[in-house]
Each structure stands twice: as C-alpha cells, then as structure tokens.
Amino acid sequence: MSGMFFSGNRLTSVNNIIKKRKSNNKNLRNVMQSYNQPKLHPVNQEDPDIVISEEIPDIVISEKEPDILISEEKSDSSATKGKLTLKRAEMLLNISKKMAGFETLDGMLGTLVDIIVSALDADRATVFLHDKEADELYSLVARGNFHHEIRMSMDKGVAGYVFMKGKGAIVNDAYSDKRFDKSVDKKTGYKTESILCDPIKTVKGEIIGVAQVLNKRNGRFTQDDLELLDAVTSQAAVALKTTQIVEHMKSREREMKVLNKVIADITSEIDLGAILQKVMAQATKMLDSDRSTLFLNDEKTNELFSKVAAGTDEEIRLPNHLGIAGTVFTSGETVNIPYAYADLRFNPGFDKKTGYFTKSILCVPVVNKNGKTIGVIQQLNKRRGPFNEEDESRLKAFTAQISIALENAKLFDDVQNMKNFSESMLQSMSNGVITLNEDRRIKTCNAAGLKIMKVASEDEILEHRAEDFFSGANKWILDRVQNVEKTQENEVLMDKELEFGGEKVSANLNVLPLFSIEKKRAMIEDKEVVIEEKKKLGSMIMIEDISSEKRMKSTMSRYMDPDVADQLLAGGDEVLGGKSTEATVLFSDIRSFTTLTEELGAQGTVSLLNEYFTIMVECIQNEGGMLDKFIGDATMAAFGIPMPHDDDEDRGVRAAISMLTEMNNWNEQRIAQGIKPLDMGIGLNTGMIVTGNIGSPKRMDYTMIGDGVNLASRLESACKQYYARILISEFTFQKLKGTYRIREIDRVVVKGKTKPVGIYEVLDYYTEETFPNMGEVMGCFKDGRTRYLEREWDRAVQTFQTALGLNPNDKLSQVYIDRCNHYKEDPPPDDWDGTWVMKSK
After folding, report:
1. What angle do CA 748, 750, 753 make, to 5 degrees?
2. What is the pLDDT of residues 692-746, one digit of tens each?
3. Which residue range(s) make up the domain with 731?
C-alpha cells in the first residue's frame, strides 16, 4: 500500500498551487487549454507510479469547503467552464483520498464505480480488471442488479475490444455496433443504449483493466466524457494495481499457511487411501481445478494406479508408459496441455466411458528425495482458463513436500496388504491352523481351527496355554510339538483321531517349526560375507479334517463339478434326501457303437470310451451340469440338480451344442489319423423328476427317475428317425432364454405314452460348410410343414424339395416328402392334427 496515502505536506503543496492560482482567475481561457491537454506528474519522486493530474493550474478551490465550487458570475461562459474544470479537478483529487481509505479491491471498485457514474451522469458502470492467471477480465463490484463477480473473455464485447486495442471507445448506439455483446442484455433484461469504455493504464503504460459506462442519462457520450473517464482511471490505476499485488501476496500467504497445515497432516498419516484423498483435495483447491488424480507406480506390474480419483469411486490402473500420465512418468517432465483434444497423447476413450469432458490438463511428476519418479499428479480443467507457469511451480513444490509421506504410506500399505493377504489366506484355508509361541501359548487360530476344536471365538483360545486344549486324548499332540521344537523338522501324521467337545474327528496333522531368518554381515578370512541365522519363534499345527464330510465331498467330486459339490454340502443333509424337482435331463448315445466294438475289440473300446467321455463330461461340467451316470456308451446328465439355476434349460442346450462341436473337432483329428469318426445323438427334456441319494457314507450316488427322464431318453432315440443330432422337447424350448437356430420338426407320441409332445431340432453346431443355406432351408421347411398340416400334399412336397435342393444333406426334408406321398395315397382321418405316433423307442 506504499505510496497510496497522501501526506499532509503533499496536500499542502497542492493547496498552495491552488491559492496561487486564485489571483490569476481572470484568464479562464488558459484554464480550458490546460484542461484540454492534461499532464500527469508524480506526487512522490521516489514512487513515480503515484500521480495526480495537473489539470488544476487555473482553478479555484474554496478553502472552507473543498468540495464546493467558489461562486462566479454565471453569465460568463468561460467562468462556467472554469467551474466545471475546478469541479473535475476536485474530483480527481478526491479519488486518491477515497481509494486510499480501502484495503481491498471490493471497496475500491465500488467507490470508483460510484465516482464514475456520478461524474459522467450515467445509469451504471463496471470496472473490469485483468486476471493474468485466467487471462480474463473480471469485476468484483457492479452497479444495478449485479453484485457478484463477473468474468468475461478478453476479446469479448466492447470492453474486451478496448482492453486488447488499448484505446477508448464511444458507442452511442450499442445494438448497431458489431463489438457489442447482446447476450448480456438477454440474460439480464437490461437495455444497453450507449457505452463509454476506456482502458485503465498505469504510468508505465501497462493496461490493468477497463472501465465501462452504460447509458448516459442526458444526451450522448462525448470526447470530453472519454477524456474525463481517462483522467479518472489514470488517477485510480496505481491504487488498483498496488492493491491487486497486495491481495495476491496475502492470498498466497493464506494458501501457504493452509498448505503447511495440510502437509503436516499428510506427513503424520500412514494410511495410503487417506493420504491420496487429502493430497488430491488440496491440489484441486490450490489450483482451482475440477478434478485431481494422484497416480503411484506399482513396480511389480509396471502400472500407474490410483486408489482414489476425485469424481470417481473405482481404482484406476494403466501401463506406466501410456497416455499423458505415462509420458510424464517415463520422462520426468511436466506436461501442460491447454486444449486436451488437440493433443495426440490424450486418450478421449476415458471421457467417452465416463461422460466427462476434459478441457485442460496439468501433469507433474512426483519425485522422491533421491530423484526417483514414484508417480504423477494430474489436474483436470482449471475453472478459470488454462493452467499457467505459476500453477506448475506451485504443484511441483507441493509434490516435493508430500513425496516422503507418499513413499512411507505406500510402504505401510504394502506391508498391510501382505499382512491382510496372509490373514485372508489363513482364514480361507479349509485346514485348521494354530500357531504357538516359544512358551507354547496359542497366538493365532483360523476359522477352520476354531470349528475343528469346537471353540466359539478366538477370545476363548488366544493367549491360552496349549495344554488347556491339547490334553487327555489329544495329549500326544504336545509330545509331537516338543519333538519338532527340538529337531526343528516337520512331522506329518496321517489319519489320526482327535477328540474335541466330546466328538471324534478324523484328521491329518502337520506340525512345523516357526523361525525367522536374520542376515548378518561378518568378516571371514578378510572377506565380508552374509550369514543367515535362524531365530526360533515357536511352532505351528495344521489339522486337515478327513471326517465323513470330507470323504463325501471327495466322492461327490468324482461325478460332479466341485462347485456343485460345495453347494450340495453347504445345503445340509436335507439336500441329500430324495425329492421331486424340475430339471433338464440330457441323454447322449454313440451311433453304431456295437459295430465299433466289434472292430476295436475290448481294449480299443475301453480306450475309445475313456477319451470320448473325457471330452463329453468336460462340456457338461463347464455348464454346471451334473453327470449322473454312464450307461455303456450312453451318458445321462442333468441341469438343475442338486442346485437349480435360473437358466438350466439354456445350460443343457449349450452343453449339447458344445458336445457335438468338440466331437466334430475330435473327428477331424481321427480322420487325419486314418481312424473312423464317431457320430451321436442327444435328447433333452425339461420336467419334473425324482432324485434320490443312494449309497453308503463312503460311496454315494444319485439316481433320477420319472417321465421327464424317460422322454429325454426317447428323444435321444428319435434322433435316428429324424436324422437329427440334437432334439429337445417343447417343454425345454418354451423355457429357453437364449437365441438359437432351432426348427420345429414334429409333434409325436413317443413309445409308451399317449399324449403328443412337440419336438425341435437344434442346429447351432453346424457350420456353413456342413449345412449350407441354413436360413433358407429353415424357412422352406417351416412353410412345408405348414402346408403338410393343412393337407396340401403337393405344395408341401414342392416346398420340401426346394429345401432339399438348397441342402441335399437335409434328410429330414426327404422324410416329410415321403410322409406327404404316403398321406396322398392313404389320407389320414378327419380328426388328424399332424401328430405322428412312434412305433419304437
């Protein structure tokens, strides 16, 4: 604020000039000449930026009331002009006085606006200052309805034009001037008619803003008005500039205080997630940006990761050499991009994925005390223009301060992750794990251990002596522990009987010594060597439960997916009992298997079946199906037992398609080896079946019975008559959720039943080579069946022949041609509905 306050001596010298000029008031013409050519002189020779206007050489000021003009004869026009000049001179003097009374821009700008409006008899005025950081014009105070901060581009409107050109402008018809921005009036409802605008310059010629005056109340804005506005702004420029500098310094001082407190908080924090949140929150606030992301380098995966990203919730990971963040990390150089989409390094895919729009980017490397880059911090979308050099230096200084805290927190996070991983692994183990210290006190016991030992919680066992739990029938375990402590070698004990809570448990035990390895340097024969020393920590007991539940799971895993077995066991004993349920049953059978066995012999047949079943079972289990049993060369499986899914029908169909696809691939290998290929048929049906668990505790098996099972078996057999490989019932078809290439082929009464059922053929396993023109063939077949059901035998035959022409291997079309010819010669009864009665299985 130095130089803004006028001392008493300065004002006295000015008043002396005024008094001296009283005696020369006769020559008012010289006064006007003096006003028309104003000169600026420094008030303080040591500070040439503080000036007053020497527009007062021929004016008179009342000594009693400095703000009141001395009365003169109004009849003299030159005297009137002199009074006006005197009034303006007083106003210019009072500008410095009034503005010196404020320490903030808010007050200064408000006062300056009031002075300008009063002096120029205008409706309103606005003083815009230049924000160098944002490269914008802004005003903290405006008259009328505007009492908030106004910001505008430097090249927008009349004010922007005046700022860029550095020359004043008089616009007495705003709407006819191309420079006028009409959008402001539309937003506010205000009608701008005339504009007077002048740049605010310091003595050195630096333009620090513009003053804009709107709508003169009486008459039009003149050149005299522009000169007066120029004199006013020149008088106020130094005070405004000085206050800007002071406020900027105060703002930085406040920022540094806050920053120091934040850095102190960060350095005292060891949780990585909490540190990342604090760092990014402070960086966003410090640079007035929209978002911030702090990436740290994961040396194990060569990825940059962030556990917290402002504006998002998920963890971000990306290769540490890609994108802008990767460029900064690998180069160690700051990247400042004012327009993101104009830079080839920017990946717009993130914006498309998140819906965010990136405008500007500032990315700075985070370097530790050893000069190693450990990450990068990225700021997005500064709210006021692009990021500048000051932003770069501030962000670099900030990251330098917090790099140590980040490294410490990352190290703590790594250790914590290792600890969590170890604990999680321990708790997820199906074996019981109990650790003892050197005093044989129990230090840890995982969930499986608590369950096996029949202990409700860790509190009941931790820090207790091992003798309290391994006593009586289990005392022999302590003998083994003692032996391991002496020998420091593992002991494995298989199929031992333990007793906890009055219940016997069959288990395998493994007793291991616990020790840490300490590395020490020593001199041996004048050479420094590293010696590893083992330090005893205690012992560990691992208990594997191999009781009835374990045996059952092992047995079940032989004929069902392990996940299904786990679900079955989790359901309890009631799941194992017999019950009626809905399921999709699958039957498959190898065609001409009897002939194959004669050709291959016993050994070859077994080898063939083993290889065939290995492929088929994998297809079934991949879809969560349960293999029920092998019946010779046939396979019986089900989807929906013992645990149902909401898409068991689709799982069954997908499994059947996969079985045929894999068989075709296998056949290609067999043909290449000169071995005869295989063929098979598959039938699927969905319905109610009865399932039951039969066997002993050491060997259990499921069985499925009921009409639903029988119909699936009949459909598998029907594949031969319809020259199909996959047939499904209408009950399965109606519940399918997926989209498949399926055609309805008939409505039949299977052997041993009286009710007809619709059957469909699945064609998805075919390729264009094995079934050409599939879409056209399916369309012709559908039309042919429609005519067949309507007893239009000739037209049906013609349509089926068209299908056969498109695919000569579609033998099903030939089947229907034969049926049509049969019914043409021997028509069905009048109540015939198209149902075909099967005479054999």
Report:
1. 115
2. 766 666 666 667 889 999 999 999 999 999 999 999 999 999 999 999 999 999 9
3. 575-765
